[in-house]
Amino acid sequence: MAVDYTVIVVYLAGMLAMGWWGMRRAKSKSEFLVAGRRLGPAMYSGTMAAIVLGGASTIGGVGLGYQYGLSGAWMVFTIGLGLLALSVFFSARIARLKVYTVSEMLDLRYGGRAGVISGVVMWAYTLMLAVTSTIAYATIFDVLFDMNRTLAIIIGGSIVVAYSTLGGMWSITLTDMVQFVVKTVGVLLLLLPIAVIKAGGFSEMKAKLPTEYFDPLGIGGETIFTYVLIYTFGMLIGQDIWQRVFTARSDTTAKWGGTVAGTYCLVYALAGAVIGTAAKVLYPTLPSADTAFATIVKDELPVGVRGLVLAAALAAVMSTSSGALIACATVANNDIWAKLRGAVRPRGDDHDEVKGNRVFILVMGIAVICTAIALNNVVEALTVAYNLLVGGLLVPILGGLLWKRGTVHGALASVVVGGLAVVGLMATYGILANEPVYYGLLSSLVAYVIVSLATPATDPAVLAAWRERLAGRGADAEAEAEPAAVVA
């Protein structure tokens, strides 16, 4: 394992070095939180694909393939569909808004007063998303070093917190680009073909497994529908995803770069399912489907390659973890803390802005690590996160973009009713039940429509300013037009 250890150590050292380099670039709030809004198509596509394809997509996607066969691709496939929908239909408008958070968008659209409540829901989502990614370090470090779970979470989480705190979005962008390349090589170009060959090829796989393993709908129609509600719609409104859209240098970059990333996700989804299916042939009686990835990597790959593929899994976890962490800190600082204390900083106070956001990343990072140590069930934590996001925020966000009659009172009612319904239904039916997101989303929609129609329409001046921002006019340039090179 010495060679494998060397690969992993070099990779982790590289992540910290990029964090240090990013610190030298992040001199303003815009640089720190959204990489100066100047990423070009190549880097934008790679980093967007990196953040949406995390540990759940890699380790969990292979596990679903082990359990259900090719239809196990549906979870990651719906993530790709969501990213495609966001990129084609909404990303250009989102990028033109020139905001930092989803809650800022809601304040612009509805005329204020929606930000704090929506910020709390978004904060809870991003916190739980970061926690689920951090928990996954335990699986990878256990395979690598037979390490204690708590120690693995502390080490993995500390590295992400370190480079995220140092350089903000610049560090995360650079590390995500490396992680995208590592994942592509490790999972698609190495693990996928090796797993199929070790399993005897597709003909042998079909001969040894039940036919339902090769049924595209074998996982069940209700499960697929739930995945669409949670993950496809979740991709449309998550702060972690929007914050990446804000990094695009233009609306064209956001649209077409995101389309490339979404297409990549569809390929990655199928690859994970095929790897899991091959693992089922090789190890038909594993105690848990979630161990399929680690088992096939540990037992079937040659020295060196094994280290690279494990680095790919680590890259998948780190990219989602860092993206969720900076999103969590951005929401906590800009949407909750600043508004609760009524702070209005003078323009040009960029140093203090960067320092404040850096402190929040550190504090949120420590909270994520502690929560990850206390929790065990990744699936339940991820389900809570997406149920809150979709049930509480999908309707007011998409309603604001698509229905001009929506009002701030309707938006607030939608967030509160949908969020409370989801929490109550999870307590009643169970966290993993489908009913919470179904009925939570429906109640959010009903509240939004009824309250919006029953209250005065949004001030025409607010709507006029909103249309100007959507068109890319009237946005405060935030001194972001500073001369700087565009990053490819």
- Mean pLDDT comes to 85
**Classification by helices and strands:** mainly alpha
Radius of gyration: 22 Å
Q: Please provide the count of β strands.
A: 0
Helix content percent band: over 70%
Strand content: under 5%
Outline: globular
| Count of DSSP-assigned helices | 20
SSE sequence, one letter per element: HHHHHHHHHHHHHHHHHHHH
Low-confidence segments, given as residue ranges, are 343-351, 477-485
Can you summarize the main beta sheet?
none
CA distance, first residue to last residue: 37 Å
Membrane topology: Multi-pass membrane protein
Subcellular location: Membrane
Main location: membrane
Family: Belongs to the sodium:solute symporter (SSF) (TC 2.A.21) family.
Question: Main traits of this protein?
Answer:
488 residues, 0% strand, 78% helix, single chain, mainly alpha
